[in-house]
C-alpha cells in the first residue's frame, strides 16, 4: 500500500490508462509506476498455549473407558464429551490414550 505524500490518503491503481499508475482520490497527486512494486508481509502463527478442554487437569478428571487406541492398540482411554455443534445436535467425543508412551488424541462425532 502506498499513501499520498500530500494528504496521506491511500493511493489507488488507475485502471483506465495503458500506463499503470497510482492516483489519489482527494487531491491531484499521481505516482507513475516505473518498476515492479512488491510488498511482502511475513505472517506469524499465533502460539496457543492453552488446551481448549481445560489443560491437563481436565484430562485427569476425564472418564476412563475401554476403547482401543488407533495407534498403539492400548485399551484404556480418557473420554471428554463436549457440545460443539448447535443445541439439539449430539455431543462430540474426544479421546486420549492412557498409554504414557502414546497419548494419541482423536475425536468422534456421536450420531
From TrEMBL:
<dbReference type="GO" id="GO:0005666">
    <property type="term" value="C:RNA polymerase III complex"/>
</dbReference>
<keyword id="KW-0539">Nucleus</keyword>
<feature type="binding site">
    <location>
        <position position="24"/>
    </location>
    <ligand>
        <name>Zn(2+) 1</name>
    </ligand>
</feature>
<dbReference type="GO" id="GO:0006386">
    <property type="term" value="P:termination of RNA polymerase III transcription"/>
</dbReference>
<dbReference type="Pfam" id="PF02150">
    <property type="entry name" value="Zn_ribbon_RPB9"/>
</dbReference>
<keyword id="KW-0863">Zinc-finger</keyword>
<feature type="binding site">
    <location>
        <position position="7"/>
    </location>
    <ligand>
        <name>Zn(2+) 1</name>
    </ligand>
</feature>
<dbReference type="GO" id="GO:0003899">
    <property type="term" value="F:DNA-directed RNA polymerase activity"/>
</dbReference>
<feature type="binding site">
    <location>
        <position position="27"/>
    </location>
    <ligand>
        <name>Zn(2+) 1</name>
    </ligand>
</feature>
<feature type="binding site">
    <location>
        <position position="4"/>
    </location>
    <ligand>
        <name>Zn(2+) 1</name>
    </ligand>
</feature>
<comment type="similarity">
    <text>Belongs to the archaeal rpoM/eukaryotic RPA12/RPB9/RPC11 RNA polymerase family.</text>
</comment>
<keyword id="KW-0479">Metal-binding</keyword>
<protein>
    <recommendedName>
        <fullName>DNA-directed RNA polymerase subunit</fullName>
    </recommendedName>
</protein>
<feature type="binding site">
    <location>
        <position position="97"/>
    </location>
    <ligand>
        <name>Zn(2+) 2</name>
    </ligand>
</feature>
<feature type="domain" description="DNA-directed RNA polymerase II subunit RPB9-like zinc ribbon">
    <location>
        <begin position="2"/>
        <end position="53"/>
    </location>
</feature>
<keyword id="KW-0240">DNA-directed RNA polymerase</keyword>
<dbReference type="InterPro" id="IPR012164">
    <property type="entry name" value="Rpa12/Rpb9/Rpc10/TFS"/>
</dbReference>
<dbReference type="InterPro" id="IPR001529">
    <property type="entry name" value="Zn_ribbon_RPB9"/>
</dbReference>
<feature type="binding site">
    <location>
        <position position="102"/>
    </location>
    <ligand>
        <name>Zn(2+) 2</name>
    </ligand>
</feature>
<feature type="binding site">
    <location>
        <position position="72"/>
    </location>
    <ligand>
        <name>Zn(2+) 2</name>
    </ligand>
</feature>
<feature type="binding site">
    <location>
        <position position="69"/>
    </location>
    <ligand>
        <name>Zn(2+) 2</name>
    </ligand>
</feature>
<keyword id="KW-0862">Zinc</keyword>
<comment type="function">
    <text>DNA-dependent RNA polymerase catalyzes the transcription of DNA into RNA using the four ribonucleoside triphosphates as substrates.</text>
</comment>
<keyword id="KW-0804">Transcription</keyword>
<dbReference type="GO" id="GO:0008270">
    <property type="term" value="F:zinc ion binding"/>
</dbReference>
<feature type="zinc finger region" description="C4-type">
    <location>
        <begin position="4"/>
        <end position="27"/>
    </location>
</feature>
